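## Example record

The block below lists the input lines for one assembly entry, exactly as stored, with component labels intact.
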Amino acid sequence: MVSFLRFLINGISLGSVYAIIALGYTMVYGIAKMLNFAHGDVIMVGAYIAFCAMTYMGLPPFVAVLCAMLVCTVLGVMIEGLAYRPLREATKLAVLITAIGVSYLLQNTALLIWTANPKVFPSVFNVGAIRLFDGNLVITSEIILTIVANVVIMVALTMFTSKTKMGKAMRAVSEDRGAAELMGINVNRTISVTFAIGSALAAIAGVLLCSSYPTLMPTTGSMPGIKAFTAAVFGGIGSIPGAMIGGLLLGIIEILGKAYISTELGDAIVFAVLIIVLLFKPAGLLGKPVHEKV
Amino acid sequence: MTQSEGKKRLLDTRMVPAPSQGIIPERDLHSTPVLEARHLGIEFGGLKAVEDFNLIIGKTEIAGLIGPNGAGKTTVFNLLTKVYQPTMGTVLLNGKDTAGMNTVQANKLGIARTFQNIRLFDNMTVEDNVRIGLHNQIKYGMFTGIMRLPGYWKGERQQHEKALELLSIFDMQDLAGVRAGSLPYGAQRRLEIVRALATNPSLLLLDEPAAGMNPHETEELMHNIIKIRDQFKIAVMLIEHDMNLVMGICEGICVLNYGRIIAKGTADEIQANPTVIEAYLGKKKEG
Amino acid sequence: MKKLKKSTINNIISFGIVIIAFIICQSMIASGAMKRSLRGQLVPICVYIVMAISLNLVVGISGELSLGHAGFMSVGAFSGIIAAAWLNALFHIESELLRLILAMVVGGLFAGIAGVLIGVPVLRLRGDYLAIVTLAFGEIIRNVLNCMYFSLDGGRLYVSFNNPNIPGTMLVNGPAGATVEAKIATFPVGFALIIFTLIVAMNLINSRSGRAIMATRDNRIAAEAMGINVTKYKMMAFVTAAVLAGMAGALYGLNFSTVAASKFKFDTSILVLVFVVLGGIGNIWGSIIAATLLTVLPELLRTFADYRMLVYAVVLILVMLVTNNPMLRSLFSQMGRRRGRDAQTQVGGADE
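Predicted structure tokens for the full assembly:
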């Protein structure tokens, strides 16, 4: 029972990281209607920036996170402006391949700068732990931090999209880009802001991911990226609460699956659950089905 | 409707009551009606788009479905072709209940259609579009095709000949090699009719076949619809806003408003019906 | 009839070019004019060409984005390797050629079965959801293969899941991958597989079934209204592609001494997709050229060592921008008009 609780808490923690990454995917998908495969690599860049800021420049952890967020925001906006914006009217597949190109570019640039040798991410947020059940259940400060960060981000984003002018503009663009443009909404700026937010979140996710799983390599972002993307689809891509629920469920399923079914098959279980959900809810848990008008 | 008199009536059919409901042409009285809809209806999230739709179409009848914009005419077509599953009522096609069927099965049972917003295979040639229509008429398997067995050559030749034959109805056989998307609007509408005919239907549904055509083309279309009916011995049901066409060739006309039938009858009866004039013709003047 | 003849002539010319390319390669090998590193790339090039053509059947002809094509390749590779060893142990087949061909048939068969099993759920979905599920299946296949153990003891084949303790010599050893008994893949067989794939793809496209597949791609609703069973024809394209990928996978597996499932990750699926997109979606010949160039290119860039993948990424992004941005495209087509219309047709292909 205690071990189940431990797995559950670990799952929620991992799921929170997935959820934060998935938010970036889902917002970009909702507004730009593109699968941004480079998002996972922005996570990796964020983690490296935070790593460098802490180990080489000796900055305090929270300043380092802010640095990472700043760099990733600039990076995200640059990627959008240089690579994706010229393809706004192009086919989906062309944008997808470009995103893959950007992903390769980021990974290989990281490879040149930081080499393939894994870096050990410092355990900066480890300031103690809560011990329950005679020390059988340890909840580290990283786990608490991750879950708290997730909740804060979720609440903040929901407020942002429902209350602020820019948030409403985002929702309008995601509903109907053409109509939003006619209503005087600057679509390009809205998309840029979306990428900025998504990338800043990716930086946070990168730091949180690496404080729980401290091996940092140029390919660190790929698999969490793909899984977070799965989480976004799982919850219904384009939906912010969907990304949150999808991320959490995915994290929990992965940890429980690894613990109780098979360590080697952890990823396969995650993907199998995704497939089963999509078969019954073809637009994800919270997605709206789209009907073509005849 | 600009004027109700002086309209050319191309067909003069005697309509008689059908055994079950409605009216059908006298000549079709002794054959199974091609279509019988009983209490047909569909709801979209509580909104009744079509309700209590009853209609009977004779084996060789040309029927018209008219009504103001948004009355639910295309929805009726979508119900009949099973693009939507009706939430109420039944549809009998050549006497067979179509409950639970999908679009493909309905087509195989003998219902073919054109679309209001043209849906051709734009990047294929005119001939290939018709060949798609012939898909279930002249068959050979995938393996035969890949291995180029004799069945392939025979099937391809038959498809080619049949496609040209069908295209010649509208004098389009010379356009066989042209990309369908590059055809002028009127020709695209005609090609859609040919493609639907290729599926060998017993009921042909035409959704605004004259939209975008000039008066001369429309006139020609009217003669062609009659020609198709006579040549293939099939029934035609059409949605159309051009009253010259509807009154000129439709034997039985059904008027739809807000998803309900407000009148049924011959052209004369419809034109004299005060409810229709109020609901439909009045509206028409505003627009 | 005129159109048919024109396409037939085009096909004959194109087949001619492929055959001439093969003869040139063969004579270069015979005369020793080909560098060893390039010679080692010949079979992989054949494999990637077949992969690209088969993926083009799904992405280009049937219009569904598949991100898990490498999964079918891995099924083909593993079943082909096992079949080659097992058949040899059972029947002592002397001829390496026969063994290779049988292995490829088995690889194609198993990949085809996987294609049917995966196609049933996948093809019910649409668009991006379909794409993500193919990705998921690709990852599941890799994950499961990582847990598979096969061994051969005399003529008996042992299979186990997650348990390496089985008797005899190991054929497939979990994450360590498969050990190939004899590297029997050859360039001429690879070339023959390309020709076979081309014939299947071309003849399928120019047939009743092919037209039905393209009709479901161009306008699903109209195709259904014409009595075409959309799922059946999407399935036909999907499974045909899976079979061809499986055959290519068997050839690939038997070209190395060991093959691990990690060789068939998501990246491999993406690599093949890049060939398809750069060659022009739906353009079979474009796939061949793109697969060849992009397999040779990293080899030629070997002098740049560390920078070559970076260059590759930049080239990929630039090509996508140039061929798909309306402004850049018109600029390039103006330049192209002076130099002939080649660039224009390439762009047109990628646009479909």
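Chain A touches chain B through one residue (CB under 8 Å). The mean pLDDT of chain A is 88.
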